[in-house]
Amino acid sequence: MSCMVDVAIVGGGPAGLAAALAAKEAKPEAKVLVIERDKKLGGILRQCIHNGFGLHYFGEELTGPEYAQRFIDRVEKTDIEVWTDTMVLDVSQKREITCVNTELGLQKVEAGAVVLAMGCRERTRGALNIPGTRPAGVYTAGCAQRLVNMEGFMPGKEIVILGSGDIGLIMARRMTWEGAKVKLVAEIMPYSSGLNRNIVQCLVDNDIPLKFNHTVTAVNGRERVESVTVSEVDPATRRPIPGTEETIPCDTLLLSVGLIPENELSLAAGIQMDRVTSGAVVDETRQTSVPGVFACGNVLHVHDLVDNVSAEATLAGAAAARYAIDGPKATEWYAVKAENGVRYTAPQKLSKGASGKAELFFRVGNPVKNAAVEARCGDKVLARRKKNIMTPGEMEKIEIDLAEVQGEVVVTLV
Amino acid sequence: METREMTCIICPMGCALRVTRDGDTITVTGNTCKRGEKYGIQEMTMPMRTVTTSVTCRGGDRPLVSVKTKDQVPKEKIAEVLEACREASVQAPVRVGDVILADAAGAGSDVVATCNADAV
Ligand SMILES: Cc1cc2nc3c(=O)[nH]c(=O)nc-3n(C[C@H](O)[C@H](O)[C@H](O)COP(=O)(O)OP(=O)(O)OC[C@H]3O[C@@H](n4cnc5c(N)ncnc54)[C@H](O)[C@@H]3O)c2cc1C
Ligand code: SF4
What we know:
By secondary structure, chain A is an alpha/beta fold. Chain A has 3 domains: about 1-120 and about 260-330, 3-Layer(bba) Sandwich (FAD/NAD(P)-binding domain), CATH 3.50.50; about 125-255, FAD/NAD(P)-binding domain, CATH 3.50.50; about 330-414, Immunoglobulin-like (Sandwich). Chain A is about 20% helix and about 35% strand. In chain A, the strands form 7 sheets. In chain A, strands 1, 2, 5, 6, 7, 8 and 19 form a 7-stranded mixed β-sheet that branches. In chain A, helix 4 (about 165-175) links the parallel strand 11 and strand 12. Chain A is globular and about 65 Å long. Chain B is of the alpha+beta class. Chain B has 2 domains: about 1-45, no CATH class; about 50-115, CPE0013-like fold (Roll). Helices cover about 20% and strands about 35% of the residues of chain B. Chain B is built from 2 helices and 10 strands; from the N terminus they run βββαββββαβββ. In chain B, a hairpin with an 8-residue loop joins strand 1 and strand 2 (about 15-20). The chains are: A alpha/beta, B alpha+beta. Bound molecules: flavin-adenine dinucleotide (FAD) and iron/sulfur cluster. Iron/sulfur cluster binds near residues 10, 13, 15 and 32 of chain B.
């Protein structure tokens, strides 16, 4: 079977939903389709039952499912078509989508524009190379989150968590509240990439110890995890220091060691990728190197605030609808470079001749205090922002006026 | 006199606060701005938290319904609120905002649903 739409969106998480709504708003006549592999819309937010979402976007504090539901309710009020339980297998350079659905079998969709919004997945133990046996009881924190919050299944009773990013911290509290004992959160870096609020309300509130410069160096046990070995690392090399090993009895190890954008489809489509973000290289409208194919949300770069995901997806969705209805616009671009402590920017390029404001998202490589960031074009300073503190865990942004961009733009700490 | 060390969570600076209570006077040091003082005093006198957890769902398209306390509750009441939620169950259909437990555990807030569940 084959069908034609103006805008096809791959992924029905917060990015896909906001993109769909923005596409509809920009071009009400456009035929918009959202394709989601899960049975329900909402993406990863469905399992993030804690609060802290939406402060920027809605001006109130919501839980993940509530935040998602607001977008789902809006989508249901429109004529946006939604296919759930449908997995996208391929996106071609000509914007032909191949997907499979248990009811209808293989489907082809020809789209005027495509928005990639597949989100990200967690790094697993395989990607980490922890030595030791391979017993049961090792989960990614997100997998445990799904089991506990959606299926009501507790993965274990005595827990060690590796990684102090927000998902690890949130799960430390969640497991404690469900009656488990979280014995330690080990963090290989000298700082946490998680929010202070989560360190205080998830760990300190529950007397859970957090050790910086520590990592798990072995997992012990035959059938089931019986203990893990934790070692101190040298902050300079991040290598374990011999003689610092400590064995902690536990039945479960949770890994919260980072997210990777889910980009198999993008790679297969031949989209140019950014080695730092592991996402596509995009311009200010979030168009990738393949004309008419856009990307937004965690598939583009890992976001810590879903509010930013929604804002970014709004840009991508609107631009996709304009591309599908009005045809291509930009044909030449200026590069955006990250320098001097700035690890990456998104977008990585800007359309020549564009106008209006654009926000350049970026992350720093290491925590810096009392610093300023500048966006420059040649000798001209386009924007400058002072910040008391910037940390790698928090995405920052700087706004520029596109009309002032006459060449390559550099984003740098000063 | 009682002194507590804590991290201010109001902004990413994460100032290390030292909060001292001497009779009725509470002094906060280590804060960079006023908001830190307010936070320190609140934490010393009456720390409040939002509780999020889940409740068993009967006859629905999912085994659990996620819930939260509509308002913040005193920190020392968290365990009781969690216990009340563990014992509770709800019949589908459920809509976001439905009251699952009124004034749960007498902690001063309703527990409300944060997701939808359809009846099956
Ligand atoms: C485990 C975990 C916990 C998180 N916790 C928080 C948190 O507490 N707070 C916070 O602000 N952020 C959190 N995040 C970040 C969060 O992912 C983002 O804020 C936001 O959900 C990203 O939205 P998205 O739409 O880009 O991705 P997602 O929410 O991941 O949505 C992507 C959607 O695309 C679908 N999809 C993927 N591939 C295909 C395909 N081939 N065909 C069809 N559909 C497909 C997926 O099923 C999914 O529904 C968490 C992330 C993870 C992984
Ligand atoms: S005291 Fe002020 S500056 Fe310091 S963390 Fe609190 S809010 Fe931020």
